[in-house]
Write a structure and sequence with these properties.
Rossmann fold; 3 domains; 5-stranded parallel sheet; alpha/beta; two-stranded antiparallel ribbon; binds adenosine-5'-diphosphate; Arc Repressor Mutant, subunit A; binds magnesium ion; 15 helices
Amino acid sequence: MGFIVGVTLPEREICNLEMERDEILKLSLGGKRVVVYGQRNTGKTSLLKNSIIPAFKKKYKKGLVLFVDLMGVTSIDSISERIRISFQEALSQSKPAKSYLVNLTNSLKSFRPNASIDPITGNLSFSIGLDKNDVSVPFSMIFNKIKDYHLQHRAMIVMDEFQDIAMIQEAESKMRAALQDLPFDLTVVVSGSKKHLLSKIFSPANAPLANWGIDILIPNIESDHYRQKYHKYINEKFSQKKLAISLEVTNDLIDALGNIPEAVNTVCSHILESGIYDKDINDQDIITAIDKSVEERGPRFEEYLAKMTTGEIEVLTLIAKHGPITSPKGKKFLRLVNKISPSAVFKIIKRLENNAEIYSKTKGYTLADPILARYLQLKR
Ligand SMILES: Nc1ncnc2c1ncn2[C@@H]1O[C@H](COP(=O)(O)OP(=O)(O)O)[C@@H](O)[C@H]1O
Ligand SMILES: [Mg+2]
């Protein structure tokens, strides 16, 4: 198996994170609330979807698991809509008792529920529609139905990119009300890449969900221990084509790519698949491979930049070229900016941060995607 990029990883392809997995699983099986957070592209979704959820289902054979991705939700209605679709899927994969289904279809009557069981496979197909005013089932109502299920068997709710509800007026308080109504032992895992927004929802004493859940950090590959394991992970794949990399060069590679697994996989995949590298990968190969990966991704980056404003592109490029930026409000940074007022610059930074395009770390603001950063350095 080569390096996997851009999709969720099967469980066995997730490097590191054993400790994090054990911790999240223990809490999930124990009916707790968990907040999983970490930078983009560090394996959160893979871990939840392909390791935690299957393990939960293995333990609770009749369990119901709702997995919903809330990335980019724009309204309370769109949250409800995503949860409705996820609920349909969750039910189709579970084995609800007949009495539960009867009760469910009765209580959701205005949404024209439809349940049928395939006589051959025994699989359930369940659908709910919109009511006569075209309104979708409020998510609180679906949570209620999950609660009913949980009282018979077991249920678990997983909400990925959860912080995106923070952008929507009243969604936080509605979500809190819905979460508070759940039985104390119904597992809820929320996960997200935008730490500042997650903490906005959970941390402040007056925030609607203050003190909710146990935090689990999914780290990037900064520490020696994680790097050693990543080194082994890379060499196992490289050895298929008789390539090898020393720990020292691996460290340089990971440094150059901001400790992000996805970026490391992208560059390593190029090294493995292109056939232009000799046995021992050295630092010069790393530079070449990063530049080639940047070129390969060029068209995709252009597409992506086309969706941004010129101001956003300018600020993003300046951070790529001059970052980490310790104080975007400082004179030094503002002097670099062309024709954008300081207040507009702050707004752009906020927006970029809210979309997880940039992160504020101890050293200052940097781009979330190190390969995009390199692209902007070279091409803009
Ligand atoms: N722990 C890891 N081991 C190997 N590859 C990883 C790991 N974490 C992330 N990746 C890479 O990042 C990509 C995205 O992973 P994903 O689980 O979607 O991350 P997240 O949900 O944190 O953004 C994967 O396709 C893979 O290339
Ligand atoms: Mg994810």
